[in-house]
Amino acid sequence: MRISVIGTGLMGTSVALAARAHGDDVAGWDVDPDVLERAAARDAVDPRESLEDAVREAEFVVVAAPIAQLPTAVAAVLAATTDATVTDLGSTKASVLRAADGSPRFVGGHPICGSETRGPEHASASLFAGATWFLTPDAHTDPARHRLVHTFAAALGATPVAIDADAHDRLVAMTSHVPHVLANIVANQTGAARVEGHEPLAHAGGSLRDMTRIAGANPRIWVDIYLDNADAIRTALQEHRRRIEQVEAALERGDAGFLARWVGEASQNRRRMLDREYPDPGELQRLRVHVPDRPGVLAGITQALGAERINIEDFELHHVSPERGGTLTLLVGGEDEANRAAALLESQGYSVVVSAVIEP
Questions:
Q1: Residue 150 in contact with residue 135, Cβ under 8 Å?
Q2: Are 134 and 110 in contact (CB under 8 A)?
Q3: For residue 272, is it within any domain?
Q4: What are the C-alpha distances in Å from 73 to residues 26, 84, 166, 220?
């Protein structure tokens, strides 16, 4: 299939690499010539000098432009083509669907994946493996075009899920956009505070680090997302405010029963979320390992556990400082496996704390 990718950053180049791996011809164009050159250097796309040149012979076009430019780019692609199926990768859908203006050739798309890095040099053909890929066909969409985009997403390893565009934007407001808002609020509130001369950020614990991991994400991307999905985010924040007020009221009246039920409900909801990612989240154990700031430490730990056939389900590294090192968090399935891993690491001189991911 002759494919064109408009926008050759991380996501667009990842699509191009995956399509190349399936034997497709991929042309590409980006508004930034340097980004296009870097994508071409990875042999992801055959570079073109203009959007019109890139889509001239395309059967299938993927638009991976930033949110602020996405509606204009989709409209330009539809105007420059007569028969190509067009989709996009944007994280909001209502505005781009309006830009498509009822074209039967357009099917909105949003793969739920990505990376904290950016640029074509960090792209990967496996980026979409196991990811949900939302598709937003509407009443005007040609069913054959929908099937084509569905098949394309599945071929890249994703799981396509059809959803109404407005419903999509309300859903991602809750699952992605509001968490980013709250992470920024917590980081800024803590950063602005002083407690009897002490700076809270200088004494941050794991809870603050976990909650603020996504704070300060690229403003060039996130400001556009906040503004494009403003109504859905505001509605979700209003519900958030109502729930905060419930907790405030329970604290004021000393209502231990409410607080216990509230924490229990959160535990059940978190378990439901983890059920999708792990076969038995109730068995997951968390190992917090203090590690020095030294080359090869992470590789040594993973190799040592791998040699003992201890499977690491997931991991995350929080760096504190060159002097104090950081904390490596490992997720291991099963208490026995976690204790084996802890004993091995402690025998190598590491300090390890083991706890259940979901408390019984």
A1: yes
A2: yes
A3: no
A4: 18, 15, 20, 17
Residue 36 belongs to domain with CATH number:
3.40.50.720
Kindly give the confidence (pLDDT) of every residue in the chain, 360 residues in length, as a single tens digit, with 9 standing for 90 and above: 999 999 999 999 999 999 999 999 999 999 999 999 999 999 999 999 999 999 999 999 999 999 999 999 999 999 999 999 999 999 999 999 999 999 999 999 999 987 667 899 999 999 999 899 999 999 999 999 999 999 999 999 999 999 999 999 999 999 999 999 999 999 999 999 999 999 998 888 778 888 898 899 889 889 999 999 999 999 999 999 999 999 999 999 999 999 999 999 998 898 888 877 766 777 889 999 999 988 988 899 999 999 999 999 888 887 777 888 888 999 998 899 999 999 999 999 999 999 888 766
What type of residue is 328?
A: L
DSSP run (H or E) holding 227:
helix 219-228
Residue 210 and residue 233: Cα distance in Å, rounded?
22
- Nearest residue to 43 (alpha-carbon basis) of 28, 33, 30: 28
* CA dihedral for 274, 276, 282, 288, sign (positive or negative): negative
104 & 232 share domain? no
Q: Are 213 and 338 in the same domain?
A: no
Whether residue 247 is found in the same domain as residue 288 = no
Domain edge (last residue) among 132, 163, 194: 163
Number of H helices, E strands in the chain: 14, 12
User: Measured between alpha carbons, how far is 318 from 209 in angstroms, rounded to an integer?
Assistant: 8
CA–CA separation, 7 and 252 (whole Å): 52
Residue 261 lies in a domain: no
HSE, CB side, 13 Å, CA atoms: give it for residue 225.
21
Residue 328 and residue 217 in one domain: no
Alpha-carbon gap, residue 126 to 342, rounded angstroms:
31
List the domain range (segments joined by +) for residue 235: 168-254
Q: What are phi and psi of 74, to 5 degrees?
A: -65, -45
Determine contact, residues 46/73, Cβ cutoff 8 Å. Answer: no
Residue with tokens 């909001």: 92
The whole-angstrom separation of Cα 306 and Cα 303 is: 5
